[in-house]
C-alpha cells in the first residue's frame, strides 16, 4: 500500500499546540468532543503524513497521559474547506480546556477519512475507532510511548512548538 510508507516513516509523531475552537459539532452533534489544533500546527505536519484517522497518547498541559484518537483531514461528511487536526481523548474532563497546550504522540494509523450517508454511521465509525485504539494502545510497543519524556512538561511552564 503506497500510503503506508509515507505514514509509518513519521510515526511516532510528536507535536503540541494550543487548543482552539472548531465548529462546535464534536460534542453537540456527535457526543464526541475533539480538541482542535490551530492551522499552524496542521500546516507543520510532514507533507507525506496522509489524512486519516490515527491513535496515540495525549495530555493537556502537564496533566496525565491518556489514550486518544485523532482525525487529520477535511471531514468529508461536513465538507470542510480547511484541513483540521482534532484529538478525542479517552478521558472524562471536569471542564473544557480551550487555550491550553495539548501534547500529542501519534503512534499508529487506523483508516482513511470517509464520507457517510448518515450522522449515525459517522458516530458508530468513530466509536469503532475508539475501541480499536484502546486495544492497540495496550500493546507493549505502544504502552512504552506513554512514558516518553515528551510528556514530562514542567508544571507552570508554557510550552509551544517542538
Ligand atoms: C476518531 C475520529 C474519526 C473521524 N472520522 C471521520 C470520518 O471518517 N469522516 C468525517 O467526515 N469526519 C470524521 N471525523 C471528524 C468529525 O466529523 C469531527 O470530529 C466533527 O466534525 C467535529 O468537528 P469540530 O471539532 O469542528 O466540532 C472523525 C473524528 C474522530 C475523532
Ligand atoms: N475527552 C475530551 N477530548 C477532547 N476534548 C474535550 C474532551 N473533554 C472536553 N473537551 C473539550 O471539548 C472541546 C471540543 O469540543 P467540540 O465540540 O469538538 O468543539 P470544537 O468544535 O470547538 O472543537 C475541546 O476543545 C475541549 O476543550
Ligand atoms: Mg473539535
Automatic annotation (TrEMBL):
A Pfam family: Flavokinase
- Catalytic activity reported: riboflavin + ATP = FMN + ADP + H(+)
Keyword annotations for this protein, in alphabetical order, are:
ATP-binding, Flavoprotein, FMN, Kinase, Metal-binding, Nucleotide-binding, Transferase, Zinc
Q: What is its EC number?
A: 2.7.1.26
Q: Name one GO cellular component term.
A: mitochondrion
Keyword Repeat appears in the UniProt entry: no
Q: Which GO terms describe its biological process?
A: apoptotic process; flavin adenine dinucleotide biosynthetic process; FMN biosynthetic process; reactive oxygen species metabolic process; riboflavin biosynthetic process
Q: Which SUPFAM superfamilies match?
A: Riboflavin kinase-like
Return the PANTHER family for the record. RIBOFLAVIN KINASE, RIBOFLAVIN KINASE/FMN ADENYLYLTRANSFERASE
Name it: Riboflavin kinase
Amino acid at each position: 500500500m503506497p500510503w503506508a510508507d509515507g505514514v509509518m516513516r513519521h510515526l511516532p509523531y510528536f507535536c503540541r499546540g494550543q487548543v482552539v475552537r472548531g465548529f462546535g459539532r464534536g460534542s453537540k452533534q456527535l457526543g464526541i468532543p475533539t480538541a482542535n489544533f490551530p492551522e499552524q500546527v496542521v500546516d507543520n505536519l510532514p507533507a507525506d503524513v496522509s489524512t486519516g484517522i490515527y491513535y496515540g497518547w495525549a495530555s493537556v498541559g502537564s496533566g496525565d497521559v491518556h489514550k486518544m484518537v485523532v482525525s487529520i483531514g477535511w471531514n468529508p461528511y461536513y465538507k470542510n474547506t480547511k484541513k483540521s487536526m482534532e484529538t478525542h481523548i479517552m478521558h472524562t474532563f471536569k471542564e473544557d480546556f480551550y487555550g491550553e497546550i495539548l501534547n500529542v504522540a501519534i503512534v499508529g494509523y487506523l483508516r482513511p477519512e470517509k464520507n457517510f450517508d448518515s450522522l449515525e454511521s459517522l458516530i458508530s465509525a468513530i466509536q469503532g475507532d475508539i475501541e480499536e485504539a484502546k486495544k492497540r494502545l495496550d500493546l507493549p510497543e505502544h504502552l512504552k510511548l506513554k512514558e516518553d519524556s515528551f510528556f514530562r512538561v514542567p508544571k507552570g511552564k508554557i510550552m509551544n512548538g517542538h
